[in-house]
Amino acid sequence: MMLHCDDFRARFPQEVSVKCFADAGFFLERIYPEKGPFGLCTIVIHLQNVRKVLPKDCLANKEPTECFFPAELIKSIRTPMFILNPSYDSWQIRNFLVPDSSAPDKSWLSCKENIRNCNSTQVEVPSIGLRNKMVNDLKVVEDKEDWGMFIDSCFTHCQSLSGVSWHSPTSPKLENKTIAEAVGDWHSGRSQGAKEIDCKYQCNPTCNSLPPPRDVTAFDRVEIY
Predict the structure, then answer these.
(1) Do residue 150 and residue 54 come from a single domain?
(2) pTM score, two decimals?
């Protein structure tokens, strides 16, 4: 969504209000593997001809592999956007930050399955390697008046796919609002404070620390409040 947001907006008349929503797409360039000349990211950019849609102002100073990641993309996006992302993104932790190859003794196995199983040393790894970097990269959003974000400290991924995480009695909350309520405030312009970043892991009792069940599809989760 981040990659094509402005192009999508350009397809509508100027008087039409267009906003973009990105769920669990804030992947960090620093922890992404194989970023070299023959790395996965370079291959994707080449095979899918992604370079032509990357921000020209970014390409003027940086490599395409850098401009491909959200930290750089959001600097150039002009269309209002809401970013939903856990700062302890379970997918990035499992596959990029602590891949199986980094711990062949399987010492991270139970921790990666459920963050509650992590010891104090292990918990610090995603805090320093993922959360802190993500929070710093998102500072640019604070200056974008018509943007919104909901960055919780839950160990999960893709929170708009399930009604349990989207809007329910057990949904994660920031400032006492569910994701659906925060998105609704941003979308309707009810609140100027629709930019929330959670504190570190274990500070938010509304996080159940487990990926939400995939009980519904994204197409069922169009309700905002």
Answers:
(1) no
(2) 0.90
